[in-house]
Amino acid sequence: MKLLLSDEHVFYNSFEKDGLKIVSMPQLIIDLMNEGGVCVEAAELLIKRTVKNV
Question: Is the Cα dihedral 31, 33, 36, 38 positive or negative?
Answer without folding.
Answer: positive
